[in-house]
Amino acid sequence: MKLFIAWSVFVLVYCLGTNATGQVITIGASLSSEKMECEFKQAVNNLNKNAIRNHIRFNAATILMDSNPIRSALDICDKLLAQHVFTVVASHPNSTDHSPISVPYTCGYYKIPVVGISARDSAFSDTNVHTMFLRTVPPYSHQADVWVQLLVKLNWHRVIFLYSADEEGRAILSRFQTLAEEVNIKNEPSIKYAPGEKNYSTVLEPILKCTSRVILFSASSEDASTIYRDAETLGMTGEEWAWIVSEQAFFDVYNIPIGFLGVHLVNGTNEVNHIKDAVEVIGDTFTKLIGNENISNPPTGCNESSQWDDGQKVYNALVKTKMEGETGQVSFSEKGDRLNAMYEIMNINGNRRPMSVGLFGHKEEALGLRMMENNLTWPGNVHVKPKGEKISRNLTIVTLKEKPFAEVTPLPKDGHCRPVAPAKHAFPCKNGTHDYCCMGYCMDMLAKISEDVLFNFTIHLSKDGLFGSFERHNVSDKKFWNGMMGELMRQEADLIVAPLTINPERANDIDFTKPFKYQGLNILVRKTQKDSSLASFLQPFQDTLWILVGLSVHVVALVLYLLDRFSPFGRFKLAKSDDTEEDALNLSSAMWFSWGVLLNSGIGEGTPRSFSARVLGMVWAGFAMIIVASYTANLAAFLVLDRPEALISGIDDPRLRNPNEKFKYATVKGSAVEMYFKRQVELSTMYRNMENQKKYLTAEAAIEDIRKGELQAFIWDSPRLEYEAASDCDLTTAGDLFGRSGLGIGLPKNSPWTHDVSMAVLRMHESGFMEQLDNRWILVDSKSNCPESNSAPATLGLTNMAGVFMMVAGGIVAGVLLIFIEIAYKRHRGLKEKELELARNAADRWRGNIEKRRTLRQTLQKQKEDQMRANSIHKQPTSKSAPLVTATANTNATKFNSNNAKTVVPPPYRRPSLLEATRESDCLPPPPPMDFRPPGYVPARSGRTVTWHNPSHNPSHSPDNLV
Predict the structure, then answer these.
(1) Which pLDDT belongs to residue 97?
(2) Where among 641, 672, 688 does a domain terminate?
(3) Reported pTM
(4) Which of 422, 517, 667, 735 has the CB geometry, 3.0–4.6 Å to 776, for a possible disulfide?
(5) How far apart are CA 63 and CA 78, in angstroms?
(6) Binding site, annotated residues for L-glutamate
(7) Do 360 and 280 share a structural domain?
(8) Can you tell me the distance from the alpha carbon of 954 to that of 950, in angstroms, rounded to the nearest whole number?
């Protein structure tokens, strides 16, 4: 009875407590042993003690995890989900390291969060498969975080990554590459091997040819033993080598060599501490979550098809939880992986035992690596840190064509490069598949450095001919270096020996030696001088003034003509002369007088006669004297004192700051000069203007456009521009130097050659060798054939006065052409006058013949009348014989009129010829028609007969009608 009462009281108190708290949160667990179950329940009880004031009560529901995934999944459904668990803590099966993969699969289907405390497989980071899984231990791939920090600490930036071709190996490689890129660590190369093989010698042999001697190794314990054996056989575990291996390849491996480094997760196998941290995370999450909103009940078993509506909400709250626990700071990534875990840095000492030499992780608000380098043992059982790279004495040099630093000439047929003065050395160099010879400032310097530092080299030209700029490619978000910088970053070259400007952008990604030459930026322009074209003699006056002078000549000539024409004193008779008085000045003479006074050519005829015209003539003479004197003085100023001068004054010239459309300036695209303008805020306007202009990939193209006049200014390194100005008299530099910097030799980051090459450059400066190179290649003014600039006036040459000679030649040509025109015109006019004279003579002769015919006709008529009168008197009707020969000849043409008077009528079928009409020896043409106009008709002569052609003439007209 007492037992029953006690139990009733317990149930009543429990119910009252439940009603007081408002909600009971059941936490499930699938653990490895009964001991872990007790630890879990104790952790939940401790959670309840701390949560009483929060009105929440936590219950514990546990099962032992079965090594069979199927039975484990059934246990989750039957024993855990039936107890309304809000979340599940998952460990691993007893006496095995198998992952609890069945737990997150089963719970994830119903949206119940799972907190793993031992699963470190990288596969659990896939949120597409394990949607509701988070863990208090980091995945194996997070060892890459420690590796990167180790490499930075030990100053190794080129490594060989050796990994297995499984999911774990790919995951750690992917994470390492992402982190290594941020600190400029390169893989050379990444070597993949198939797990489970019995011999890996063929996989390891390519490593011997690599430059790097630092190997990052990820493998299981079984594969690690085989690889260690083969690596020791190939001599890859001795001095100058360094190995950093994964946690799986470090522990439980019997033959791990001396000096290897590895990492070990602190508390990684301490299941009790991880249970406590997992329960604390769950309790903290639900305390905050239920205090703000209501949480529905989860599913009660696997028979229900519906998912938990608030499961995702609970999972998101768990991921965001951050606290200090037994294993350090507990926080999670978006994928649910543990962040900021604590790792131990382990080293195999001379006794082949692992020894802790450092820590990495979050402790006391500090995340980083703390290591005792002096206590490290390295492969070969030495205590000197390896350099991490195999130092090769055969280096690859990249350069580009840039006078006078690197000049490229075709390779002779015999294959031997020979230096051409002032070069001292010439080396073979390649541009793709083509062979050339390289010589110049940098080649002579390279020969000296190679002798001092003791290395061999091969030279090739930059593939794209660019210095190098940081640009996006293929519409990608990532930027890459192009040109020589890109080749150095891609390990296609060991040194850049070229006029490479040292600037902050490049120094972030590569190393530079001490500058071998200090220089600045300057501006190259074409020398400008006054125009010496054919119209040079017209320069003293503007076009408007020339037009006004020419107009004034003709206006004055016209006014002189009018004054002399209308003046009463424009004509006069010379004294003591019997000649007639002289005529007034005509327009032609006035024009000649006006031009003669202006050009001072002398006046021989046609001067003004009247006083008014002579006053104007004197004023015109004064005007001409002033004009001629002014022209002469200005001609001397324009031609004799013509001096070449720079087009602009310097970088602050207004034409550079605010250019117009006709003024163009540029620099080489992707060069350090372009970076300088892009970096300087006050030069942003100039940079935008150059961006809109023509792009130049090489300095040669821009300098050639300067010579052609297509580009007005070229901004580039001062040594090159000084060389061009000294070699070409038409070019000059403008203004003072700006943007001072240095030219250096480029090497990869942390290259073992950086210090030696840099010291060699300093020794060359101290010995005066660099000064000799400057005098031989750049400072060549003393050898230049350009005339020196001074203040003395220049002498006039043919180019200055060529226009005057051309004007004289034009006058001669014009005179010759005019004389031919005059001759042709005179000849044409003479022919016209001769034709008119012939026409007048023909007309006069025709008129005379007409009069003769008229007189003859009247005489014949009179004779006929007399004969008829005589016949009528003798009463003879007919006459058988004509009294006159003439009458007989005209018998057929005789008719009698009404008065019986005979009338001579010509036959209707023909015109009488002149021979019939007269006995004169001259034959005359027939009379013209009534509308005849003599000037409009031209006679065509044939012998002595003149025939008139008249299209309108009707042959039936009688001679009487023609008259």
Answers:
(1) 66
(2) 641
(3) 0.51
(4) 422
(5) 10
(6) 499, 501, 506, 717
(7) no
(8) 9
